[in-house]
Design a protein that fits this description.
Elements lengths: L14 E4 L7 H9 L7 E3 L11 H9 L5 E3 L7 H13 L2 E4 L4 H8 L1 H13 L3 E5 L1 H4 L4 E6 L6 E5 L7 E4 L7 H10 L4 E5 L4 E5 L2 E6 L3 E6 L2 E6 L16 H7 L9
Parallel strand pairs: 1-5, 2-3, 2-4, 4-5, 8-9
Antiparallel strand pairs: 1-10, 6-7, 9-12, 10-11, 12-13
């Protein structure tokens, strides 16, 4: 008798991460396609803004680009009843959309344990997430909150835990490479992804599978900080390595040219 074993694979959703600033209409169009088309439900969660009701701009952008089912969760200070209602809506969602603002405010309003439980379960169901600026940063396991007391330092806390990359945004625009290195050294972070305004990537299963722009990746291997910039012409930096290891190339999901010392 021949026994065949069927191994079930878990569908893992994609993370659309944007560095802030103006983003092209290509992003919502692509997001809508990835979640199954215009009739798939997208939930907008704008609690990183002082006035979440202003999240209507996200709803308008999505509908202008073809989305037909968009729900805005607009409570400024979600109650337990709001969370229960949100849980039911999120179970039906194929996409979760998060604009920019204050990532610390977002996590405080919903509660970090609640966000981690709901978002991680959704990702495992194959739900896709979009985030720009704060909306991207909060997807990290270790989330940068903002500047610390010292120059180029940071504060951090536990994020939503959708990726092991710690994400920073507005990197070149606000000269944040030094604070990325600080976070690597002080927060025990192993991998960082830095996006500047207008840049975006798609991450799935902790691999960068698509790149638009020239983002920065920093990874710690064997207690050394290795620095890489996507693109054919890396710029010199205090944090670049003389070469990238085969291990790092494989982890990043795409071949990167070696950096000169």
């Amino acid at each position: 008798m021949i026994v065949s074993a069927i191994v079930a694979t878990v569908a893992v959703g994609k993370l659309f991460l944007v560095g802030g600033g103006d983003a092209p209409d290509e992003i919502p169009k692509r997001f809508i396609m990835e979640i199954g088309g215009p009739n798939s439900l997208i939930v907008v969660m704008p609690q990183m803004r002082e006035e979440p009701k202003n999240g209507t701009s996200s709803v308008e952008w999505l509908t202008e680009n073809g989305a037909q089912r968009v729900v805005l969760l607009g409570a400024a200070d979600p109650t337990d009843e709001d969370r229960k209602a949100a849980e039911e809506i999120l179970k039906q969602a194929r996409g979760i959309w998060m604009p920019g603002g204050d990532q610390e405010l977002f996590m405080r309003r919903w509660g970090t344990p609640w966000i981690r439980k709901q978002f991680q379960a959704a990702l495992k169901r194959g739900v896709c997430f979009y985030g720009t600026s704060a909306g991207a940063m909060l997807m990290s396991e270790t989330m940068v909150l903002g500047p610390g007391e010292e120059e180029n330092s940071t504060r951090w806390q536990q994020g939503a835990g959708l990726t092991q990359f710690t994400i920073d945004t507005h990197v070149r625009d606000r000269e944040r490479l030094p604070r990325m290195k600080y976070t690597m050294e002080k927060a025990g972070v192993q991998r960082m992804l830095g996006l500047s305004e207008g840049e975006w990537v798609i991450v799935q299963g902790d691999k960068i599978i698509e790149i638009h722009g020239d983002p920065v990746v920093i990874e710690k291997i064997k207690n050394q900080i290795w620095w890489a910039r996507w693109g054919l012409n890396p710029r010199p930096s205090d944090y670049e390595s003389p070469a990238l290891t085969t291990e790092l190339r494989a982890r990043l999901g795409r071949r990167i040219p070696a950096l000169s010392s």
